[in-house]
Design goal:
The protein is α/β, with parallel strands linked by helices. It has nine helices and twelve strands. The protein starts with a strand and ends with a helix.
Length: 275
């Protein structure tokens, strides 16, 4: 569904994208992670057609982004909702731009409003809503037409747990229906909950790509054994086996045991800081 190959985008002397490559298949959620300045937002803007790359190729279902706009849904990192209109009017506008009409548009508004818990404030002005409510409106506008490719750039930044959970449920459902999703976040547990594959970005490139389980196999966890007079820590890629060996070899009473498997945070830190 999405092929972004060797993308380059420069802003003056800054290489925002420097050979960025990412492929997302139908039904796949790709978790795109990286420090600020890694190129994640520029990548989303290029894929959505808001920016033209200086070099490289983007295809959405075999088409260039500007020819595939009705296949795309974008929720940008920064809030970009109209404060003087209501969520209902916002969704009517975005649904109409993507070809929804009359009863189909009304049904789509009612459905996404219920899924993202917008119903209670559909007819209030957006400008009086909380930041989390505005995030939900923005996400709903990106999803109302059931796009084949969904780009979500930090969609849960600053939201409450209820909003986060609602959004994750809808994202999972859209992927199950066959949408390709690129989900940018700094909150890595979300990617575990979504069952996402992982792409790590650094300095305008993707430097690691794969299933979370495959990537985590390369990252050490830690075993800690506490004795009465000291604590022993061992870094290992197989914490369970290492713990068993340490317990067999222990010659004094063990006061406590802590076994920590590697996490996505460990993966990100290891890959992002690698030479």
């Amino acid at each position: 569904m999405l092929e972004a190959l060797d993308l380059v985008k420069r802003f003056g002397s800054v290489n925002a994208l420097d050979g960025f490559t990412l492929v997302a298949r139908p039904g796949e959620i790709v978790g795109l992670v990286g420090h600020n300045g890694a190129g994640k937002t520029t990548f989303a803007n290029v894929v959505s057609g808001l920016l033209r790359p200086d070099r490289g190729k983007v295809l959405v279902n075999g088409r260039a982004p500007r020819a595939a706009r009705r296949l795309l849904g974008l929720a940008p990192q920064h809030l970009a909702v109209y404060p003087t209109v209501t969520p209902r009017q916002t969704l009517r506008l975005f649904g109409g731009l993507h070809g929804l009409r009359r009863r189909g548009l009304t049904r789509a508004i009612d459905e996404i409003a219920e899924l993202l818990r917008l119903t209670d404030f559909l007819d209030r002005r957006v400008g009086v809503l909380s930041g989390g409510q505005q995030r939900r409106v923005q996400a709903a506008a990106a999803m109302i037409h059931r796009p084949a490719l969904l780009l979500l750039d930090e969609p849960t930044a600053g939201v409450d747990p209820q909003t986060r959970q609602s959004l994750l449920e809808v994202v999972r459902a859209r992927a199950e229906e066959g949408a390709a999703v690129v989900y940018t976040t700094h909150y890595l547990p979300e990617l575990t909950e979504l069952g996402a594959s992982i792409a790590v970005a650094r300095q305008g490139r993707t430097i690691a790509r794969g299933e979370a389980s495959e990537l985590l196999d390369r990252i050490p966890g830690e075993v800690r054994l506490a004795f009465d007079d000291e604590e022993v820590r061992v870094s290992t890629t197989d914490p369970t086996t290492t713990l068993a060996e340490m317990l067999v070899g222990a010659t004094r009473p063990v006061r406590s045991v802590d076994l920590r498997q590697p996490t996505l945070d460990d993966l990100y830190q290891a890959v992002a800081h690698a030479d």
